[in-house]
Specification:
The chain is an alpha+beta fold. It is built from six helices and eight strands. It has helices spanning 15-27, 66-78, 109-112, 114-124, 136-141, 157-161; strands spanning 2-11, 31-35, 38-42, 52-62, 85-93, 98-100, 103-105, 149-153. The strands form two sheets. Strands 1, 2, 3, 4, 5 and 8 form a six-stranded antiparallel β-sheet that branches. Strands 6-7 form a two-stranded antiparallel ribbon. A hairpin with a 2-residue loop joins strand 6 (98-100) and strand 7. 35% of the residues are buried.
């Protein structure tokens, strides 16, 4: 069984419906274990709701390998409903290190995007980054604060949407 983290960033407008759609789609190919809190990230310095996105991370497990999972996400990106998504990325899978043009594992956002890192710590804080050798919660302690984001809602409600 492969354990993985996936980050989801979607438009605020219609965001919870899109988040539920993503959870149902992911639930069809993997077993969702945990969902982080959902945060609103402001995309400009004026903190305007119309220019913001919802961000969260899902920890899941699947029999699929990284290439198969990436292919399923590619299909999801092409679906009509997914057109409003900004992005969803596989951040890590087990302790795999992989450098492919279409899938780098662990993904650089795992440690370079503070909000993504914060969300990852909520669902898999003791994950050891295979390159740095540090636990995610140790990396979080050394990173910047969440200045451009605020709590939006609990993510555990998406667990029911995946069934």
């Amino acid at each position: 069984m492969n354990h993985f983290l996936v980050s989801v960033s979607i438009d605020l407008l219609g965001g919870m419906q899109d988040a539920q759609y993503f959870a149902r789609s992911l639930g069809a190919i993997a077993q969702i274990q945990k969902v982080s809190s959902i945060y609103k990230r402001f995309l400009n310095s004026r903190h305007e709701d119309l220019n913001s996105e919802l961000v969260f991370v899902v920890k899941a497990e699947s029999e699929l390998n990284s290439d198969q999972l990436n292919s399923k996400f590619s299909e999801l990106r092409k679906s009509a409903r997914a057109g409003r998504h900004r992005s969803f990325k596989i951040l890590c899978m087990n302790d795999m290190i992989q450098l492919k043009p279409d899938l780098a594992l662990p993904h650089p956002d795992l440690i370079h995007d503070h909000l993504i890192l914060h969300c990852c710590c909520e669902v898999w804080e003791d994950y050891v980054h295979p390159v740095t050798g540090q636990k995610l919660n140790e990396i979080l302690l050394l990173s910047e604060s969440l200045e451009s984001a605020e709590f939006f809602t609990q993510g555990k409600g998406l667990m029911g949407a995946s069934r």
